[in-house]
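Title: Comparing notes on inverse folding

I've been comparing how different people in this forum approach sequence design from structure. To keep things fair, I'm posting one structure and asking everyone to reply with a full sequence. Here's the target:
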């Protein structure tokens, strides 16, 4: 029975850094995604990495706003990983990272098209990923082997944000982004409840808050970040993977920041 890792999207930012880190710190096949030019994305992901078998990395086209691309990849997995119906592949670690930001300071600044795009990417995208890949998470009957660089149980990790916390919202603003991430946090909890019923202690779902990372999403706000709190993607990837490795099933269904501290709902 083959095990694999999923990172989506993977062509830039945190997803790019996490995929490269997993290539060097684990031994499993990695299914990575990009919206376009997957060959170029694969070359970039592998560039400069030593002692990494390029055959481990499979980059496929996925646009999280297009469910057909998600379902096509999910359907391709058994043949891609040379598995059978009797022994399907097991998803041991997933990083679902789609994110987009249209900041609004007041309700009057909300643009319908931008808000709709925000929910499509930040909430519906992760929801569709869960829909189509949940069946690959280990079930109660599966025996999980110890694997280099991974927790003993399977983890579905969705990239959330502290601003998705309702109780921690003291500033307001960012209406579409905040509410899309609050919706994602609710989705993570519901998905974890589903996994607990189907998979028991073999699989769990968590949310992750990476802090402010030097990516295109946050570039407009870099100048306002406190000294020492603007993180390079590679550093953030290391911290987030460490958090995932350190959390057990007692920590399931919650959102955790890069320091391993809980983000309140």
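Reply #1:
Here's my take.
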């Amino acid at each position: 029975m083959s095990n694999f890792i999923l990172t989506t999207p993977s062509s830039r930012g945190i997803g790019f850094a996490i995929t490269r880190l997993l290539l060097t710190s684990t031994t499993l096949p990695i299914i990575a995604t990009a919206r376009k030019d997957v060959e170029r994305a694969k070359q970039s992901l592998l560039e400069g990495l030593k002692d990494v078998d390029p055959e481990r990395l499979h980059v496929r086209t996925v646009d999280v706003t297009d469910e057909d691309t998600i379902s096509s990849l999910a359907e391709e997995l058994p043949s891609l990983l040379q598995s059978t119906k009797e022994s399907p592949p097991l998803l041991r670690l997933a990083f679902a990272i789609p994110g987009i930001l249209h900041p609004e300071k007041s309700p009057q600044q909300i643009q319908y098209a931008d808000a709709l795009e925000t929910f499509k990417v930040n909430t519906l995208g992760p929801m569709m990923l869960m829909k189509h890949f949940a069946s690959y998470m280990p079930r109660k009957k599966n025996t999980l082997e110890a694997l280099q660089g991974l927790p003993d149980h399977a983890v579905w990790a969705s990239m959330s944000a502290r601003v998705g916390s309702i109780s921690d919202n003291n500033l307001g603003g960012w209406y579409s982004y905040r509410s899309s991430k609050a919706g994602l946090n609710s989705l993570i909890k519901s998905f974890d409840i589903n996994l607990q019923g189907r998979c028991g202690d073999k699989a769990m779902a968590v949310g992750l808050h990476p802090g402010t990372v030097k990516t295109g999403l946050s570039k407009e706000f870099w100048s306002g970040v406190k000294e020492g709190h603007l993180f390079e993607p590679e550093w953030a990837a290391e911290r987030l993977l460490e958090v995932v490795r350190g959390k057990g099933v007692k920590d399931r269904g919650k959102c955790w920041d890069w320091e391993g501290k809980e983000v309140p709902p």
